[in-house]
Every structure is written in C-alpha cells, then in structure tokens.
Amino acid sequence: MRHHIFIIAACISMLAGCASGTGGKTKLAKSARYGYIDKSGEIVIKPQFEVARHFAGGLARVKIDGRWGYINKSGKVVIEPQFVKASHFSGDLARVEINGKWGYIDKTGKIVVRPQYEKARDFSEGLARIRLNKKWGYIDKRGKVVIEPQFIKARDFRKGLSPVKVYAQ
Questions:
Q1: How many domains does the chain have?
Q2: pTM, whole model, 2 decimals?
Q3: CATH number for 87
Q4: How confident is the prediction along the chain (169 residues), in pLDDT tens digits per residue?
Q5: Is residue 120 helix, strand or coil?
Q6: Would you say residue 122 lies in a domain?
Q7: Distance CA 134, CA 147 (A)
C-alpha cells in the first residue's frame, strides 16, 4: 500500500510540474551538467558544462553561462567562453560567430579570418565555403578569397571537385 501511495504521489508531482509550466523539469534537472567519462565509465572531467561536445583536434566545445568556449582534455578552459555560436575544430581552425558574422579562430582563440561572412563552413581540401551577399564562394586558411562568391549553393570539395548551383543560362 505504501508503495502505491509513493507512485501516486510521484505522478501527481510530475503532473504539477507540467501544469506549472516547467515542463516537468525539476530543480535537479535544471542543475544537471555535462562532463566527460573515459571508456571504463570513470568521470575524467567533472560535470560543469551546460552543453559539451566531442573533442576534435585536441579541444572540445563547451557552453558556460550561455557562451561557447573550448577546453583541453584535462578540462582546462583554453579559449574563454565568449561566442554565441561556434563549431568544432577542423584542422587548426574553428568557425565562430561574432556580432552576427562568421569567421575563424585558431587553437589559441586568435581570430585568423575576420568575422565578415553570413555563413561559413569547415575547410575541405584547403578551402572553406563562405556566404557573402547571399552568394557562396571559397576562401583559403588565411582568409583570402580563392573563388569569388557567385553560387546559389555550393558544397565541400572532394577529390578536387565541388558541386555548385547556378542559374541556368
């Protein structure tokens, strides 16, 4: 009988949480944090992040206080959380959005390609797709425009070729 009362009380509590607009989330769920474990299941970086992503290039993207930054494999913050949006490292560079424009940083957090693009993608075969004035083009890792933005759509290079979409002539 006690067991049934406990289950009923738990259900009422969950329903009350849903009705109160919390979506059933408790204070425990709101305080849940991400960390990292190794293959044995041991916690190797304590849970402390709002969001945590996979390691790429030795660094992982983590969200702290609503901003993205990067940590190393020991859990040390190596690039302070400062970005509203950010990507993983692809090679030595990661895409970041600053004031609504995309650019690229290196593994020290230094801006390598000034944020100036509407959109930007990872590097593939040494070139990255960028969108400027609603047209896609390509830049190199120094930020030099190699192929002027002129395409309606463009994809990454694979084996020296990239599919692009243009208006029929």
A1: 2
A2: 0.78
A3: 2.40.128.630
A4: 444 433 333 333 334 444 444 444 445 556 899 999 999 999 999 999 999 999 999 999 999 999 999 999 999 999 999 999 999 999 899 999 999 999 999 999 999 999 999 999 999 999 999 999 999 999 999 999 999 999 999 999 999 999 999 988 7
A5: strand
A6: yes
A7: 15
